[in-house]
Every structure is written in C-alpha cells, then in structure tokens.
Design a protein that fits this description.
With 358 residues, the protein is an alpha/beta fold. Helices cover 35% and strands 17% of the residues. The protein is globular, with a radius of gyration of 23 Å.
C-alpha cells in the first residue's frame, strides 16, 4: 500500500479542514495509507470547532508504524499549542515547520512514498532552519539529491510549469538564459513522459514581453534568449513551440492544444491557471527523486473556521501524488531493459558483419 505523508500546514488556516474533509471518504483507504504529520489534539479541535465529519485516527510514533486500512497521525508539536483561527502567529509557523521537517526527512529516507503538503504561511514559518521562499525550495534542499525542482501547476486539461518561481518580478529578466530555459524544458518534457504518462508531449513556451517583444521593439529577451532556447531544445528532440504572448494564448484557449505550458515567471502562469482551475488545481514539485504535491490555494485565513473551504484541490493533490508514484514505477519498468539495436549504422564495423545463415 502506498504511504501518503500529509503535513498539516498552518494550524490557523484551512489545512485541517481540507485534510479532514478529504479523509472522511473511507474509499481513500482502499488505495493508500495516510500518515498525517501534525497534532491529534489540533485535529480534534478543528473537527469540533467546524462540526466536521468524524474521522477516526490512530496515533503512531513514526511512519514505519503506520498501519493499513486506517488514518495514522504522528504528533510533531507540543500538545499545549494554541490554535487561533484566521490569525498568523509564530506558534502556527513553528508547528508548520515541525511537521514539514519530519515529513520531508521521512520522504527522503523512504519511510513514506509521497508527500502532500497543506498550505503554510511563508512569513511566519521563517526561522533559523527555514529561510526559503516556500515548500518547493525547502524540499529541493533537503530531499532533492542535488536536482533542481520544477514547479508544475496541473489540472485536467492544463499543466503550467514555471521557469522562475518565488523571486521578485524585477529579477526575472536577468534570471533568463538559454541554458536555463533548455534545462527546464528538458525537465518538463521528462516529467510529462515519466510522471504523467504522455507520449511525445507538446510544450508551449510563453514570451516575457507584451506581444512577444514585437521583434525587439518591446523587449529583446525573445530574440536573444527565448527563441534560441526553443531552437536548441528542438535539436534535442523536445517538441516545443512559441514564444506566445500569454494574454492571447490563454484568452483564446490555445493552451488546450498543448500538453504543457512553460511560463517565464510566477504570476504569468499562475494567474491564468488559478482563474481556470482554482478549486481543482494541484501544485506538483517535479524534477526531484521524491514526489510532493499540494493544493493550489493558500491558508485562506479569511474563511478559516467557517466550514467554507472546498477540499477538491487537496483531494486532487492526494490522487495525483499516488498516480505519479504509479506512473514512475511503470515508466521505470518499461525502460529498465531497452531493446538492443537491430539495424546497421552506415560506415560502422557492424556493416561488415556477415549475418547470412550457414
């Protein structure tokens, strides 16, 4: 059974609400074993305060003790921690980090198969051991094995990857390079094949400037960086097209003709994505040897404690993590023993071989 680690995120937000609503469907236990990294008492507080469906949990000392056919929870924080719904507090940030730290270590060590993270507050979680813009960068550092992460936002008919992630908009132009774009396109293409099971994926590349730079009139990055990168990626066998101005690309529905879209910066890709898929979208950290997903929304303090949060995005994040685990396993099996060449290369030594029957 696939062990799905789940971090509780910010305890003053909607994390426990979407977790408990998702796990109230007992059918989930038929294909995975949930392991919550959090607090049984905090979970009980949320369940009572929001009058949520009863979800029975078994407290375990570690992921290795998690049992099948039940929801397991590991206490990662002090039992006396105070919940203040809809407020950002340092205690909530400390609790979020404690759960994330233990879960990421277990993910790295293979004690859980995949990780699904509930939303954190990127400000109150900061401390001496967490000086990262978000989950993606921390997981890359702790469990990435030296690989570079690629953020992919995905829903049923769209997958948007980000060339640059959590950096100021003013720093985006200087962060662009031919090498970086080619590398991200390669990682994106590999993920679409191995993680999503897509054969020969088609990737659209967005421009940086309005109207794709208008041949240099509105910016030179397309001419000097993005187009040469696309051409180089094509030489390497990647089916990529563009650059496309993002407004017309999403507004016309052109995204539906592609298996993936590479955006140049965070809001360029995510504004369109969340407009179209806010309640169902999933954030997937690709490019790493470990699998991590999350809902595509934040802590939502404005509705915390009101029983208004939809669990659809979190549930989809759990489903996707399991699907990717199975897809990677299948891809590994399919490519483990490739067939040897059964043709001759002109001019090579094997051209001279006599294979006629005696």
């Amino acid at each position: 059974m696939i062990k799905v680690g789940i971090t509780h995120g910010d305890i003053n937000g909607i994390g426990y609400e979407v977790i408990l609503k998702t796990l109230s469907d007992v059918r989930i236990l038929e294909f995975c074993t949930p392991v919550i990294y959090g607090s049984a008492k905090v979970a009980a507080y949320h369940k009572k305060a929001l009058d949520l469906p009863n979800v029975s949990m078994s407290i375990v000392s570690g992921a290795q003790s998690a049992g099948n056919n039940r929801i397991n929870i590991i206490n990662c924080v002090d039992d006396e921690i105070k919940v203040e719904l809809s407020k950002s507090t340092q205690l909530a940030g400390d609790a979020a980090f404690a759960a994330l730290k233990r879960a990421t270590a277990d993910l790295r060590d293979g004690l859980i198969n995949v990780l699904v993270t509930a939303p954190i507050n990127k400000n109150n979680i900061q401390n001496e051991k967490f000086k990262f813009p978000g989950h993606t960068e921390y997981i890359q550092e702790i469990a990435g094995g030296g690989n570079s992460a690629l953020m992919i936002l995905t829903t049923e008919n769209m997958r948007v990857a980000l060339l640059t992630g959590h950096i100021p908009l003013s720093e985006v132009p200087k962060a662009l390079s031919i090498e970086k774009i080619v590398s991200k396109l390669n990682d994106f293409n590999t993920s679409l094949v191995a993680d999503f099971g897509i054969t020969g994926p088609r990737i659209a590349v967005l421009s940086l400037n309005p109207h794709a730079g208008e041949n240099g009139l509105l910016g030179s990055e397309e001419k000097n960086i993005i187009i040469p990168a696309i051409q180089e990626a094509e030489k390497r066998g990647i089916k990529c097209f563009g650059p496309y101005p993002s407004d017309g690309f999403f507004g016309s529905g052109a995204f539906e003709k592609f298996d993936g879209v590479l955006a140049m910066y965070h809001d360029q890709g995510l504004t369109a994505f969340k407009t179209l898929a806010m309640d169902t979208g999933v954030n997937f950290t690709a490019g790493l040897p470990v699998i991590r997903t999350s809902p595509d929304h934040g802590t939502a303090y404005d509705i915390a404690g009101k029983n208004l949060a939809s669990e659809n995005s979190f549930r989809n994040a759990l489903y996707l993590a399991v699907d990717i685990f199975q897809n990677r396993k299948l891809y590994k099996e399919m490519t483990a023993n490739p067939l040897k060449k059964h043709y001759f290369e002109k001019g090579s030594d094997n051209e001279k071989l006599d294979l006629s029957s005696e």
